[in-house]
Amino acid sequence: MWKPRLSLLLLVLSLFTALAHAGYERNQAVPVEKVLYGEIESVRHITEQELIQDSHSGWKTFGGALLGGVIGHQFGGGSGQDVATVLGAMIGAGVAHNAATQPRYIEYRLVELMIKQEDGTQVMVIQDRDTNISFAEGDEVRVVYLVGSVRVDPAM
User: Fold this and answer.
1) What letter would DSSP give residue 129?
2) Dihedral angle sign, alpha carbons of residues 126, 132, 138, 139
3) 104 CB contacts (<8 Å, ≥6 apart)?
4) pLDDT of the residue at 82
5) Cβ of 106: how many Cβ atoms within 10 Å?
6) Quick one: which of 3, 30, 80, 113 has the fewest CB in 10 Å?
């Protein structure tokens, strides 16, 4: 009788403490499908990089050309000023285009956990690495099955 109530209380408390790193917002109730306890069999830290495509590179090139043309227009006089304006615009566009087309990446830090659950099943969970929680082989954990996702926390 006490174990289910204690488990529910611990689940609610852990959800409130882990909300900053979970896939949901603070003060948001999330339905729980089930909670199982288990032991970690293996831990692997994963780092993934995702390439970010810049869809605004044309505007950046145009802005560079405009700025380069304005700066180039400050030099010379007569036809020399026209040449400086055109060269400034070309150089500005080239610099802006090269800067805009440099690849940019987002780095994801994940942890892969192989868990043997109390019902005998094995599950592999990949979740965001939380710097406040470290996992090791043999640790007792709680596997919280939410609607559409799962979260692993240390067992309390």
Assistant:
1) P
2) negative
3) 51, 52, 54
4) 83
5) 9
6) 3
Element (H, E) at 81: helix 79-100
What are the CA-CA distances from residue 51 to residues 14, 54, 90, 99 (Å)?
34, 10, 28, 15
Share of the chain above pLDDT 70, in %: 76
pTM: 0.51
Contact of 136 with 114, CB cutoff 8 Å: no
pLDDT, one tens digit per residue, over 5-35 is 544 444 444 444 444 445 556 667 778 899 9
The tokens for 126 are 């990949």
Looking at this protein, which amino acid is placed at residue 95? V
Pairwise CA distance, residues 26 & 22, whole Å = 9
Residues 35 and 142 sit within 8 Å (Cβ to Cβ): yes
User: How far is the C-alpha of 15 from the C-alpha of 4, rounded, in Å?
Assistant: 16
- Rounded Cα distance between 154 and 20, Å, is 16
Amino acid making up residue 101: T
